[in-house]
Amino acid sequence: MRNFRILFIVLLISLIWVASVNAISPERQREIIENFMYVTGQLDERPGQVLTDENGKPVPIKCGTSAIADFMLNRDKLDDGLMKALGVQVFARPPLTDEQTYDTPGGFFKVHYSTVGDDAVYLADVDNFPANGIPDYVD
């Protein structure tokens, strides 16, 4: 019986520790959400914690990938009430007319493209090198 109590206490402490490790502070949640909103055009002004150059001017964000990845990786840990209060919108990728895909040779990326309509890729010399059925602009 004593071993059972010790085991129970150890498991309880482990669960509490795991829960605290996975928790994100409200300040960090707000930062993640606001950065996501900024790079997706949902905020006009850059959120706090702005980096500045040697002249004191804000350094522009050159790529929003890290902000979007941070948001998507932590999406299930973010407070729904905070997201609703801030008005964040998560958009699905828009569908393309006659959508086709191309997997890069290394298999790390999938390129979605269309050959018809307003979203069509550039089609000059459509498929000359190599002649594999994929427009050269995509290939």
Topology:
Elements: H1 2-22, H2 26-39, H3 65-74, H4 80-86, E1 100-103, E2 110-113
Antiparallel strand pairs: 1-2
Please estimate the helix content.
25-40%
- Head-to-tail CA distance between termini: 67 Å
**Mean pLDDT over the residues:** 79
Largest sheet: 2 strands, antiparallel
Number of strands: 2
**What order do the SSEs take from the amino end to the carboxyl end, as H and E?**
HHHHEE
Number of domains: 2
Low-confidence stretches: none
Helices, by number, come to 4
What percentage of the residues does DSSP assign to strands (E)? 5-15%
Widest β-sheet, arrangement of strands: 1-2
Morphology call: extended
Q: What structural class should be given to the helix and strand makeup? A: mainly alpha
Radius of gyration: 23 Å
How does this structure look, described?
Strands 1-2 form a two-stranded antiparallel sheet. It has helices spanning 2-22, 26-39, 65-74, 80-86; strands at 100-103, 110-113. A hairpin with a 6-residue loop joins strand 1 (100-103) and strand 2. It folds into 2 domains: 2-86; 94-139, no CATH class. Helix 2 packs across helix 3 (65-74). The chain is built from 4 helices and 2 strands; from the N terminus they run H-H-H-H-E-E. The chain starts with a helix and ends in a 26-residue tail after the last strand. It has 139 residues and is mainly α.
